[in-house]
């Protein structure tokens, strides 16, 4: 078997190529992955369910034999499907989604489920069901969320890539906090992973968190909805033309990022200028930040309320207080207290925000902002037991850039270009017009080539420790 750390350093495509050449077997890739998980997951708590049956790849696709994780928001046959919630702690999935079938056909081998915040509601992966997922760069820091388990597992070298999804920054925030690549596709770009049917679900895009841009680009090509009118196939090359890039740093609340984030952002602007792109600083779109945040969490509360209603009708016993976290209950209660027009009002707020955003950014190729306004925060800063108002305030302070792209259906990505003086990763955020996924991925290739991050491993990772 290949030496443990050498396999951990390889992205998914490299592992698949080794397997295709016969230099390593699919069984050896799986065995090595399990050893890595057993060695480091007790410290990080990134993986919440392990697939104990050793399965050969069902597909002979381009990722054949490569181990990966599925975020616990998504069903995977035979595995627990908890959504990070005590309400579903004993639930197991039996069905496969269209998205999952594409991944099986690609040859990816699911080795387990990754941790998430309850129902993906919070930007920190710490739940009353599973406990805390630690950031491999600093164990006292959050891995962010809601896809924190996927980001921590990829950053630590447990798997080369992991499924994730993003309803308001849930791929991009943990990618930034953990120093890996996180891409959110355009709305409707990929086949269903089972999240659609509510306003919150329809804002959510399924994709992956990866170490390399090419893994992300290949993953996207394999899961595209070919009837969407948007498929572009496998984007393989860096961009060769100059881009017109609009820039701002003010968050939706009207605040500026912390000094370490500002320095990282300025370094990114310098890099982009050196690469020949034209940067144009402007005043950001004028939203009512508190109103937009209130609408976002109303939509989230409505989604959970529909789950509770379904459970209440089917099992005969109402959902109990201790089955959901305090923050989740607070969102549901707030939604229900607003009356029958709450969702209509939230949709109107969204529609106005989208019009403002698209008008402000029209004519530009790319929008450049920080991913997060702060460095990775300490565990407990976004704990689900805090009061609703305080959690929303803290969330808005750090996540002041990402959600508008979910609301508008734009592709967006966090690129791991920088580290603070304290050694923590700081992602830089790029977004484009709906459907312009290929443009963003081409830019990501160029940035990866200019500032390679593949050898940047955190202290609590397989390559560093072994």
TrEMBL record:
Determine the domain of life of the protein's source. Bacteria
Per its UniProt record, what InterPro entries does this chain match? Answer: Amidase, Amidase_dom, AS_sf
TM segment ranges: none
The residue ranges of the Amidase domain are: 29-441
Q: Which Pfam families match?
A: Amidase
GO MF terms held by the record: catalytic activity
What PANTHER family would the database entry show?
A: GLUTAMYL-TRNA(GLN) AMIDOTRANSFERASE SUBUNIT A, MITOCHONDRIAL, TRANSAMIDASE
Family membership noted in the UniProt record: Belongs to the amidase family.
Q: What is this protein called?
A: Amidase
């Amino acid at each position: 078997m290949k030496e443990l750390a050498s396999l951990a350093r390889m992205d998914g495509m490299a592992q698949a190529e080794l397997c295709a050449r016969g230099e390593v077997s699919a069984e050896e890739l799986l065995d090595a992955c399990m050893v890595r998980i057993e060695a480091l997951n007790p410290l990080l708590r990134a993986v919440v369910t392990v697939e104990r049956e050793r399965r050969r790849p069902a597909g002979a696709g381009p990722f054949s034999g490569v181990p990966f994780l599925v975020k616990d928001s998504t069903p995977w046959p035979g595995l627990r499907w908890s959504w990070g919630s005590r309400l579903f702690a004993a639930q197991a999935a039996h069905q496969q989604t269209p998205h999952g079938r594409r991944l099986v056909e690609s040859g990816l081998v699911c080795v387990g489920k990754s941790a998430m915040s309850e129902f993906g509601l919070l930007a920190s992966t710490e739940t009353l069901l599973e406990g805390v997922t630690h950031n491999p760069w600093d164990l006292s820091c959050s891995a962010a969320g809601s896809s924190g388990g996927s980001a921590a597992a990829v950053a630590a070298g447990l798997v080369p890539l992991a499924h994730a999804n993003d309803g308001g920054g849930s791929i991009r925030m943990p990618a930034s906090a953990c120093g890996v690549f996180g891409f959110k596709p355009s709305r409707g770009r990929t086949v269903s992973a089972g999240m659609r049917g509510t306003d919150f679900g329809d804002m959510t895009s399924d994709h992956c968190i990866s170490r390399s841009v090419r893994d992300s680009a290949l993953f996207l090509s394999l899961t595209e909805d070919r009837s969407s009118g948007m498929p572009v196939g496998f984007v393989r090359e860096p961009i060769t033309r100059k881009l017109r890039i609009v820039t701002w740093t003010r968050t939706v609340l009207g605040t500026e990022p912390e000094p370490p984030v500002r320095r990282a952002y300025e370094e990114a602007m310098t890099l982009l200028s050196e690469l020949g792109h034209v940067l144009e600083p402007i005043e950001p779109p004028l939203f009512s930040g508190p109103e937009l945040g209130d609408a976002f969490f109303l939509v989230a509360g409505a989604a959970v309320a529909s789950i509770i209603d379904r459970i209440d009708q089917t099992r005969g016993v109402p959902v109990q207080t201790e089955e959901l976290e305090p923050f989740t209950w607070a969102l549901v209660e707030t939604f229900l207290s607003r009356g029958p027009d709450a969702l209509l009002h939230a949709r109107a707020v969204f529609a106005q925000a989208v019009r403002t955003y698209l008008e402000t950014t029209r004519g530009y190729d790319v929008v450049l902002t920080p991913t997060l306004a702060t460095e990775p925060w300490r565990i407990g800063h976004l704990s689900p037991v805090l009061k609703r108002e305080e959690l929303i305030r803290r969330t808005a302070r750090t996540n002041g850039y990402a959600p508008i792209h979910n609301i508008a259906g734009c592709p967006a990505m966090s690129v791991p270009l920088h580290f603070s003086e304290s050694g923590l990763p700081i992602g830089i955020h790029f977004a484009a017009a709906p459907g312009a996924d290929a443009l963003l991925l081409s830019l990501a290739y160029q940035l990866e080539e200019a500032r390679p991050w593949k050898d940047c491993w955190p202290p609590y990772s397989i390559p560093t420790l072994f």
